[in-house]
Design goal:
The complex is a heterotrimer of chains A (304), B (449) and C (190). With 304 residues, chain A is an alpha+beta fold. Chain A has seven helices and 13 strands. Chain A has helices at residues 2-35, 100-109, 145-149, 175-179, 222-225, 232-236, 261-267; strands spanning 46-50, 56-60, 86-91, 119-124, 131-136, 155-157, 163-165, 186-187, 215-216, 242-246, 251-253, 258-260, 283-286. In chain A, the strands form five sheets. In chain A, strands 12-11-10-3-13 form a five-stranded mixed sheet. In chain A, strands 1-2 form a two-stranded antiparallel ribbon. Chain B contains 17 helices and no strands. The relative contact order of chain B is 0.17. Chain C folds into three domains: 1-30; 31-134, Sandwich (Immunoglobulin-like); 145-189. In chain C, strand 2 (47-58) and strand 3 (61-65) form a beta hairpin. Chain C is elongated and about 125 Å long. The chains are: A alpha+beta (304), B mainly alpha (449), C alpha+beta (190).
């Protein structure tokens, strides 16, 4: 009698776990599949790579060894990611000063709030127009005044449009900060906070760990770009303000929608900030017409 | 000290005038007087405080200064510009006045070269102090980019330092020979120094020939290099887009200001030297009078370039440039600005037109006004422009909007002044402060022509 | 009493779980049919067209064409898929829909692009996709501006005029300075 009871309870236990486990598995699968409808890549995903004879070819991602676990060395970082020309588009009609881009950037680069790579400015073009929020980072200019004046070549322009800083070489003269008309650069005046939990070597492509007495700025996150992923500011934005892409692709995406770059710039009358300074920025702004939200001069918490 | 004098008097000299000149001008090289020791002590103390402040800066980074992300250049840079300006005095007196045969200025050659050398050395040191990573100083030479205005500045400052030093040395050479021959009651190291530095000077006519030739070449070469050094320093600002800096007038503005402040430095030096070394016979009232007239002339030129610099932006009142000039003329910096322009420029010009103000003591006071005005002017050139970038300054700490230098910055700045004065004082003590051979030449007492 | 109640309670739980499980299973089995997409390409008068046809795909055999299903046409880009064609491309009664390929889309250096056609979030069909490599893109010309001589290039690539000017000035001035050093040396030898 007792043996039977024990067998029975064991059977019941078995069935219970089996059923709950199966339900859990099926339910989990459903949730998983609903969560990834936006899977941006096809099953046989291909990525662009530079072949040995200098041509751009598309190869199956599975066949390419992922070489970029460690960040690129400073001398390697002087060469751009081949065949790319990164651009950023900012849709001013959608920005609500949520500042999630700043948060994402801070986390990725282990920054403190006194050294913002991105600034969201409250702008007004003329006395009668309305205010709008303008996210501003480094414009990665094609005619960069900061690169021209650097005495030691610590900051340099790459073929993929990115202007990078090698903080192993920077002497901290701050001439680049004086030369940049857009106030894009920040300086490590004191010893920066150590990057918690980060133990990889320094690379200009990550700008981590920060070094005292050197200059830093938005670098378009080349370490992330090498893995064909979008920089954290783009994906953090809840309003889809920032579009990023490769101009050679003629496509930009804000994490949710992908559009043709040439069409976007043409149809939305894109402009570059202070175009007539002649620095040839690679960041375009879409004027704040047909705004999604009216302007609210409040702090970030109520603006998401 | 009296030993030297007696020794000299014992030597039989055919020409009493020559002996007197040499007496007078060599007298001060004797052992340091009490006043001198106190003076050096004070300078060393100020330098020590500055060095301590710099050690703090090396330890904690530039955060010990008041410079932040917008005012990223501060009084280190304005001090640098100031010292480069003062260093132009060498070319002014040694070359320009000499080439224009202003023989009255001959006694001033040595002083001006000494001031030039010490000022340019101070400038080089202060710019290294401003670097965020001085441990990477040699990157400038290893990785230097010829396209950068800083590299041009490094090249031209290095060149000017060498040329100024050579000018000083070559005009000093006959006098070192004299020191070696006549000063016998001195410590061994000092006598050895004269012997080595004299380069076997024997008062031979061939040697004088070479000295004349070299002086001539250097005298001509130093003028374009002097103009270049301050114009290139102005390009550190003129190649950027800052209001107040983005000006084609900046080069002549800086150079004319440099000549003015150089002249005032010479007057101050003249005053103290003739007072403490009792050389009133050589640096006479007439010298002060002439220097006063020269200072008026240079100040008028500087006034002209000042007007040019400010009229354009004032008329246009464009954007941040308009904000910047409003701040200078009527805003936060107005008191300093008008103090500098009136007290440091207009007032000296007005006063020095009248002869009574060109007497030694009054003109020394006026020159001090010019000097202080010039230092504050460099402050006004560097800092306010940085506080008006094109994009608005938002979401930053209140301290970013103002720049009030910290005690470390003041200590280091004063230390740099003390350093320059120390170099000048030591050189004056070790070598004749007036060019003996040139004066003797003037009075046709030696055959140097 | 207690044991009977708890017994019934436990049995009810098991029944509900089984029912739920069977429901899910049946959903997984019956709800999403499999489909397959066939792609045809046509070029006419400098215009390029892609015709996608959706078929039922049961037990590894191609069945009837599916009418009224949305096919989404994408081109693979660096970070995401760029949609081409209309917002919704629905198949007609033959299961076909034709989309024009944009004539000015850049590809890699040889003009290759990767076309992906998907069935996504369709009512009765599971997600599926078809991929094809095409040489329909405009070849991208790689930029070698790194080696151009500009003011913002690396130190070694300074503009020629600047290098000539500065170097000749330095050589002239320092040449004179060295000549002066030599002359000073001569003084000591006189």
């Amino acid at each position: 009698m007792r043996k039977n009871q024990i067998k029975q309870s064991a059977r019941r236990k078995f069935f219970k776990t089996f059923i709950t486990g199966s339900i859990g598995a099926v339910a989990g699968k459903e949730l998983y599949s609903t969560g990834t409808t936006n899977d941006a890549n096809g099953p046989d995903e291909k990525i662009t790579a530079l072949s040995s004879d200098g041509k751009l070819i598309k190869v199956l991602k599975s066949q390419v060894e992922h070489m970029h676990h460690a960040p690129v060395t400073p001398s390697e970082a002087r060469k751009g990611i081949p065949g790319k020309k990164f651009v950023l588009i900012v849709d001013l009609g959608k920005c609500r000063n949520a500042r999630k881009c700043i948060e994402g950037c801070e986390k990725h680069h282990h920054l403190t709030p006194d050294r913002p790579f991105i600034k969201v400015l409250k702008m007004k073009d003329n006395p009668r127009s309305s205010y709008y929020w303008m996210p501003k980072k480094c414009f990665q200019c094609d005619n960069p005044p900061c690169v021209k004046v650097c005495p030691v070549g610590a900051t340099y322009k790459r073929t993929d449009n990115i202007v990078l800083i090698d903080n192993n070489r920077c002497i901290g003269c701050r001439f680049c900060m004086a030369a940049c008309p857009y106030s894009a650069r920040v300086f490590n005046w004191g010893e920066p906070q150590p990057a918690e939990g980060y133990d990889k070597p320094y690379s200009p492509e990550t700008s981590v760990p920060s070094k005292v007495g050197t200059v830093e700025k938005c670098d378009f996150c080349p370490d992330v770009l090498r893995e064909n992923k979008l920089p954290p500011c783009i994906t953090s934005c809840p309003n889809g303000v920032l579009y990023f892409g490769d101009a050679n692709d003629d496509a930009v995406t804000n994490g949710e929608e992908t559009v043709r770059l040439s069409e976007l710039l043409r149809e939305k009358a894109a402009y570059r900030y202070m175009e007539d300074l002649g620095t040839e920025p690679n960041v375009y702004y879409l004027p704040p017409v047909d705004r999604l939200f009216p302007f609210k001069d409040t702090n970030a918490e109520s603006n998401t | 000290m009296t030993d030297i004098i007696t020794k000299i008097e014992k030597i039989d000299l055919p020409d009493k005038d020559r002996a007197n000149i040499e007496d007078d001008l060599l007298r001060h090289i004797a052992g340091p007087s009490r006043k001198y020791k106190i003076w050096i002590g004070v300078l060393v103390f100020i330098i020590a405080v500055g060095a301590f402040a710099y050690v703090r800066q090396l330890k904690y980074g530039l955060i010990v200064t008041a410079m932040r992300d917008y005012t990223s250049w501060g009084i280190y840079i304005s001090n640098f510009v100031f010292f480069v300006a003062v260093s132009l005095v060498g070319s002014l007196v040694s070359s320009i006045l000499k080439l224009s045969h202003a023989t009255w200025a001959t006694p001033l050659n040595r002083i001006s070269e000494i001031i030039a050398v010490s000022a340019i050395m101070s400038a080089a040191i202060i710019i290294i102090i401003d670097m965020g990573r001085p441990d990477r100083f040699f990157n400038v030479f290893l990785y230097g980019r010829l396209q950068s205005p800083i590299i041009w500045d490094v090249i031209v400052i290095g060149t000017y330092l060498v040329i100024s030093f050579l000018l000083l040395f070559i005009s000093l050479l006959p006098d070192i020979g004299l020191c070696r021959d006549r000063l016998v009651e001195l410590p061994g190291w000092q006598k050895k120094m004269y012997r080595t530095l004299a380069f076997n000077w024997q008062d031979k006519p061939e040697q004088f020939e070479i000295v004349k030739k070299i002086s001539g070449i250097l005298g001509i070469m130093v003028i374009p290099v002097a103009f270049a050094i301050h114009t290139i320093t102005s390009w550190l600002f003129a190649t950027t887009w800052r209001p107040g800096w983005d000006s084609t007038n900046l080069g002549p503005y800086f150079v004319s200001g440099a000549f003015m402040v150089g002249a005032s430095c010479i007057i101050i030096a003249m005053y103290f030297i003739q007072k403490y070394l009792r050389l009133q016979e050589y640096i006479t009232d007439k010298h002060f009078d002439n220097m006063g007239k020269l200072l008026v002339l240079l100040s008028l030129v500087y006034l002209y370039f000042n007007i040019n610099e400010y009229l354009g932006p004032l008329f246009r009142m464009v954007g941040v440039e308009g904000e910047h000039i409003t701040e200078l003329f009527a805003g936060k910096y107005a008191p300093m600005y008008w103090l500098v322009q009136v007290g440091g420029l207009i007032l000296p010009i007005t006063l020095l037109i009248f002869k009574p103000f060109r007497k030694p003591f009054p003109i020394m006071i006026v020159s001090f006004l010019v000097l202080v005005g010039a230092w504050l002017k460099r402050f006004l050139i560097v800092i306010p422009s940085l506080q008006h970038p094109y994009l608005p300054i938002q979401d930053v700490d209140e301290s970013y909007m103002h720049y009030i230098p910290t005690w470390e910055e003041w200590a280091i700045t004063l230390g740099s002044f003390a350093g320059a004065l120390l170099i000048i004082s030591v050189l004056i003590k070790l070598f004749p402060v007036l060019p003996i051979w040139e004066i003797k030449n003037e009075k046709k007492l030696i055959k140097a022509t | 009493m207690k044991t009977i109640k708890s017994n019934i309670y436990q049995r009810a739980k098991i029944l509900v779980s089984i029912a739920f499980l069977m429901f899910q299973f049946s959903n997984a089995v019956s709800q999403d049919k499999k489909a397959i997409i066939d792609l045809q390409f046509k070029e006419k008068n400098d215009q390029k067209f892609i015709t996608g046809t959706a078929y039922d795909f049961e037990n590894d055999s191609i069945g009837a064409p599916i009418e009224g299903i949305d096919l989404f046409f994408y081109v693979q880009r660096t970070f995401s898929l760029l949609p081409i064609g209309d917002r919704f491309s629905t198949t007609d009664e033959n299961g076909e829909v034709t989309v024009e390929f944009p004539a000015d889309l850049p590809g890699d250096t040889e003009g290759n692009i990767q076309l992906i056609v998907k069935i996504e979030d369709a009512d009765d069909y599971a997600d599926t996709s078809a991929t094809k490599e095409l040489r329909w893109g405009i070849p991208t010309i790689l930029d070698d501006s790194e080696s151009k001589r500009t003011l913002w290039a690396a130190g070694a690539n300074a503009p020629i005029s600047l290098m000539i000017l500065t170097n000749s000035l330095i050589v002239i001035v320092w040449g004179i300075i060295f000549y002066i050093f030599f002359k000073i040396y001569q003084i000591s030898k006189v």
